[in-house]
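Example record

One chain of 460 residues, shown exactly as stored in the release files.
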Amino acid sequence: MPFSERALIFFRAVNHLDPRQVYLTLRSQLSQVLHVKLFSLFIYDSDTSRLSLGVHNHPDLAEGLSVDSTQAAVMFQAMVGQESVLLADAHEYRPIGEARGKYETPDALIVPLRLGGQPVGVLNLNNPRAGRFSEADRQRADLIGQVLATVLMNAHLHQRVRELSTRDPLTGLVNHLHLHRALYFELMRSLRYARPFSCVMMDLDHFKRVNDTYGHVVGDAVLRQVSGIIRETVRDTDVAARYGGEEFALILPETGLEGAMVLSERLRVRIAAHPVALDERNLVVTASFGVASFPLSKIVHMSQLLRHADQALYEAKRRGRNRVEFYQERRIAQRCPAEWSVLYYAVGSAQGPREGRLCEISSSGARLLVGEQVPPGSRLKLDVPGGQGGEQTGVQAEGSAIWCRRDEGGGSGHLVGIRFEGVTPQGRRTLAGIVSRLLVKELSRVMVTDMGEMDKVATA
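Predicted structure tokens for this chain:
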């Protein structure tokens, strides 16, 4: 097939706005189009004045390779001079590693990629099938280079526009629109697979005072530094967004309340420990956090989880700022069946621990089946396990008996309603985590049952 036909097929295939598709086409077709065995494409970064490896078929080039003008003088010479450079002995040119044994022929062709006078990158060609590069080979490579420069610039601009539509330009975090898309996806996934996830709202404390005192330039520097700490702290699977102004939001997949509280506390400590350097002093910045977790938070719409996290954030502000709070239902705490054996103690009694059965539990109280009547107002302590079999950390919770009545199930026991009181913040978080895990298990059980019923209907 003549070069003109090969080039036409290649141009049609490589003309794509997705850089990944462009690279796939280069890897699969470029060697056949130019009749070379080895090639490498480097992309120029004007901010760092470096060439970074984009795509290649070399067996020994490391992914992520980046070189400067001292390491790859000939590539920079071709790019600045705007003319391809033919090396008569590629064995003497090894700016990017020991590749002497990979070159079957001495020739190497360095083709600059430029568009409108601006450098785009460099295309390196090695091992021509004919043994040496001819002038015709050089002209063909230059033509391919001109087309590649246009294609790569278009793909870069398209990718940049996509990033601008989903990312905040100041912080580099995703924006409000992308956050809501990710939240919807995570809620659907959580419902489908009965897995927890959490949402965190954080706000920089007294940020208006920073802008008023030091100016918006310093305020922007604070936002960029905090955003960098967020990116370094969260996982790759988490979604970090600038929600607006000095407020940020996080979506944490596969993370219950306890894990979200741990991450939020880690972020709070790191932000406070990294002051912003000014000319005359270091500016200490603190942040407040509100955490909401599904299914612990009862929601029917994704925006409710953000609202719950925002309410918890407000509570953190109300309690003095620079702290982490989690959302709790104001009227009725979320309850969940437990069916666990527990030990309970009567406060002030000389009797030792007695065994009861935990029927229901929430972050604010429990329903306990015991063998004797417990007068309302009695103080009780419960050793609440973290899970069946003790696989999770538990907590000792103290509270008051609110009511007591005989078990309607026909047994001789009594049901006692207990309201937890005086539980430490850590104990409250542990209780909320226990309830969250139970809710996930209950949701999974219900979904499996519903699917089984649907299968019976479908096969009937």
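Notes: The domain at 336-442 is CATH 2.40.10.220 (Thrombin, subunit H).
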